[in-house]
Amino acid sequence: MSSPLTSPEGKPPRIAIREAGRHAGESVEIAGWLYNLRRGGKICFPQLRDGTGILQCVAVKSALPEALFETLKDLTQESSLIVRGRIRAEQRAPGGYEMDVEDAEVVQRVPESDPYPITPKEHGIDFLMDHRHLWLRSRRQHAALAVRHEVIRGIRDYFDSNGFVLVDTPIFTPAACEGTSTLFEVNYFDDEKVYLTQSGQLYNEATCAAFGKTYCFGPTFRAERSKTRRHLTEFWMVEPEMAYATLEDVKRVGEELICFVIGRVLERRREELKVLERDAAKLEAVKAPFHRMSYDDAVKKLQSKGSGIQWGGDFGNTDETLLTDDVDRPIMVDRYPASVKAFYFQPDPERPELALGVDFIAPEGYGEVIGGGQRIHDLDLLLKRLDEHKLPREAFDWYIDLRKFGSVPHAGFGMGVERFVAWMCGLEHIRETIAFPRMLYRTRP
RNA sequence: UCCUCAGUAGCUCAAUGGUAGAGCAUUCGGCUGUUAACCGAAGGGUUGUAGGUUCGAGUCCUACCUGAGGAGCCA
C-alpha cells in the first residue's frame, strides 16, 4: 500500500510509518510531527509520528552536516518536519525499525517560549479535556478513535451487506417522540420551534415500509442533565428498522451485528487494543448465542443478588452491572413492563402488560448497548396509546398514516456508538470515544 | 436537579495554624544507543474568588465560581 501523498521529484518516496517494516534497507521520506526526542552530545533520537505510527530516527553528529544535526537536536515536541533516510531493522528501537536520518526539513518549529502543553508525563482530565484538540495526538486517544472508525465501518458493512438501505432521518424534528424535557430546542426562523433529534426511529418506521429494511446513522441529542461516565449530550446512534419483523428478528440481528463488529475490531485493530491495554480475550469470548432472559427472570436474579429492584421498575446502572457480573457476553433482556417503555411498543399478546422490547446489556459494566423491539402496527392500539400518553394526534398524523396504508408487524433497535466503542476499548469514560465530546458542562473545544 | 470530593509553579502533586516545596516541562552546561533517557545549575507563585476567625490562614468557618465522581434519566 502506498501513501496518498507524493514526494517531490528526485526525493525518496514518501511512506507511512505503518509501512516502515516493508521498506527496510530503502531510502524513504516520512512527514510527521516530533513525538519525543532523546539526545546525547553527539547523537540524538527524534521519534516521529505521522498518524499511522511512531518511528524512531537516529541522527549521529559525525555523519551529518553540523547545522542539520544541531537543528534535529534542538527540535521541540510536536514540531512538524519531514525526514529522509534509510530504514533499518533495529531491535533497540520501539517497533523494531529505525531510520538513519540523512536529511530533514522542519516545516514548523514549536517555539520553546510556548511549548506543547501535553508532555509525556501525566495530566489531569480537566487539563486534557481543555486541550482535547491536541490530546487527540496522544497514543491512547489516537487508538480509541481508530477503534471507533473500525466500529462504524463494521456497522455500515454489516447492514450494507445484509440488505439494509441507508436512509438518514432529519436532525431538526418538529415534535417530541418522548418527553420534551430532554430535547434541545432550536429557533427555526420566525416563530417556529424545532428540536434536535433524539432518535430517527419514528422516521425509520416510514422508510422501512418503502425499502423493507433500512437504517439511519447519525448524531442524536439528549438534553439530559446527566453527569456520568456513560453520558454525552451529543452522541451517534445507528438505528435499523425492518418491515415484516418481530422481536425475535431484533434479537437475531442485534446479536449478529455485535459479533460481526467485534470480529472486525479483533481482526483489524489489534495494535490499537494493545495500546489501550484492552484484554482482547474478553472480546474474543463474545460469541453467539447471547444469554436470553425475560424481564421477570432478570428481576428475580437481581433480587437474589441483593438488588432492591421491584417488579415494574427499570434497571439502574448498578443493576445492569450486577446482572452481567457473572457472564462473558451480553444478556438480552426482553418483555419489560409496558409502563417503563415508550408508547410505540407492541404489547406481548399473551401478557398485554408487557412490551415486546429487548435491551442488550453488555458485560463488564458497560450497560445497555442496544435497545429496541417490535412496534405497534395496529391503528386502534396506536391511537389508544397516544391518548394514554397524552400525546396530540395532530403531531403524529404522518406516523398514524403508516398504520392505515399497508401496516405490517415491524421492529428495530438503536445502538449507541460511543458506549459500544467504550466497551471495545475497555474505557472507563465514554468521553474518550468521540473526538470532541459534548457533555453537560463542556462544549469546548 | 440532588449528593460527595477537589481547586497551590505551564503540568502532576507535597506542605501539625508558624519562612510556599519536589518531580516533569522551559533555559544554560555535560554525555555516541536513548526507551516517560540520565547528570549538574537557573528562572518560575496574588495558594480559584470574596469575606470572616486568629498574634499569625494554603491549612479553620461562610458564600460564590470552576471542575471531577456518582444518583435520577437514558444509548
Mean pLDDT: 92
Number of domains: 2
CATH topology type of the largest domain: BirA Bifunctional Protein, domain 2
Approximately what portion of the residues adopt beta-strand conformation?
25-35%
Helix-strand blueprint:
Blueprint: E1 27-39, E2 43-49, E3 54-60, H1 66-73, E4 80-89, E5 97-108, H2 125-130, H3 132-135, H4 139-160, E6 165-166, E7 172-173, E8 185-188, E9 192-196, H5 201-211, E10 213-221, E11 234-243, H6 247-268, H7 270-275, H8 280-284, E12 291-294, H9 295-304, H10 317-323, E13 331-337, E14 354-362, E15 367-375, H11 379-388, H12 397-401, E16 410-416, H13 417-425
Parallel strand pairs: 3-5, 6-10, 12-13
Antiparallel strand pairs: 1-2, 1-4, 2-3, 4-5, 7-9, 8-9, 10-11, 11-16, 13-14, 14-15, 15-16
Helix pairs in contact: 4-6, 4-13
The protein binds one RNA strand of 75 nucleotides through β1, β2, β3, α2 and β11.
Question: Care to describe what's here?
Answer:
- This protein is α+β, with helices and mostly antiparallel strands.
- The chain folds into two domains: 92 residues, Nucleic acid-binding proteins (OB fold (Dihydrolipoamide Acetyltransferase, E2P), Beta Barrel); 302 residues, Bira Bifunctional Protein, Domain 2 (BirA Bifunctional Protein, domain 2), CATH 3.30.930.10.
- 28% of the residues lie in helices and 26% in strands.
- It has 13 helices and 16 strands.
- It has an eight-stranded mixed beta sheet with strand order 6-10-11-16-15-14-13-12. It has a five-stranded mixed beta barrel with strand order 1-2-3-5-4. The protein has a three-stranded antiparallel beta sheet with strand order 7-9-8, with no helix packed on it.
- α4 crosses α6 and α4 packs across α13.
- It is elongated.
- It binds one RNA strand of 75 nucleotides through β1, β2, β3, α2 and β11.
